[in-house]
User: Which sequence fits this backbone?
């Protein structure tokens, strides 16, 4: 199916289904994961075979941090190479998935806590396409991005996610893309190839996050700044953590969680990812 055919298929079918689409939080790590065949990218590809094929994918990426909330609303979003210092092969990647303007408008109508802007100026940044191109390499499923409003606190983002719940009933796969533990200033660059190397504080915080997620203790995850020094080191800035709160806000009381790609990289990053449903 071509991108345009996929786009038309979706816009013709926004009806609810009996099956509830799972929700994912994916630790995306280095942009190089977008072109490398490694344990993380292989697991993303495998995940796509384990869940229902979505009608569309909506990504909340750490790399679209804006004033106000916006959603991509163009027919064909561009592939954004929002990084520097990487091999040319990474800049050469194009992921020509269609957008879904009707879904963008539907999503805007669902969100009452913010006046959502319909964006024609963004596209798919590396928080989205580096993952999705492994999951759906044919680029035949519409992909949209929802931005993160940097003027708002964690509770706001968690609550906003709840307004998106009905999209799960319509076959939309919602992905939060970031990293639970993400401190680039403290990366041990000489340890990037060391298997699962993590600083004590990073591993401790990652385990705490997993325990709270497994127990559905969302309030402590929302107020992560109260979790002590380890949390401050793990989340020096919020943009890579907030996509997790979008994922958790979409969980219902009966759903369990599972973890994958649960490894540390370079001491101060974790790739730990979450599947709900």
Assistant:
């Amino acid at each position: 199916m071509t991108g345009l055919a996929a786009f038309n298929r979706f816009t013709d079918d926004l009806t609810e289904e009996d099956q509830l689409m799972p929700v994912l939080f994916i630790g995306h790590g280095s942009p190089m994961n977008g072109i490398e065949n490694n344990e993380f990218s292989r697991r993303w590809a495998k995940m796509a075979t384990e869940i229902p094929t979505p009608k569309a994918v909506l990504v909340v990426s750490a790399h679209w941090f804006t004033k106000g909330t916006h959603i991509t609303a163009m027919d064909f979003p561009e592939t954004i190479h929002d990084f520097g210092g990487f091999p040319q092969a990474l800049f050469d990647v194009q992921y020509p998935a269609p957008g879904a303007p009707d879904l963008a408008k539907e999503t805007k109508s669902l969100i009452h806590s913010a006046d959502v802007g319909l964006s024609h100026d963004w596209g798919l940044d590396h928080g989205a396409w580096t993952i999705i191109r492994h999951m759906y390499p044919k680029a035949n499923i519409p992909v949209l991005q929802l931005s993160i409003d940097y003027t708002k606190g964690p509770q706001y983002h968690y609550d906003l996610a709840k307004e998106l719940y009905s999209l799960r009933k319509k076959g939309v796969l919602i992905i939060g893309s970031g990293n639970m533990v993400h401190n680039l200033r403290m990366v041990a660059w000489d340890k990037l190839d060391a298997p699962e190397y993590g600083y004590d504080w990073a591993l401790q915080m990652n385990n705490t996050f997993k325990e709270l997620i497994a127990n559905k203790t969302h309030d402590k995850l929302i107020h992560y700044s109260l979790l002590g020094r380890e949390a401050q080191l793990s989340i020096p800035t919020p943009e890579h953590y907030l996509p997790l709160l979008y994922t958790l806000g979409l969980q219902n009381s009966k759903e369990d969680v599972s973890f994958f790609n649960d490894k540390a990289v370079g001491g101060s990053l974790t790739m730990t990812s979450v599947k709900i449903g």
Observations:
- DSSP finds eleven helices and twelve strands in the chain.
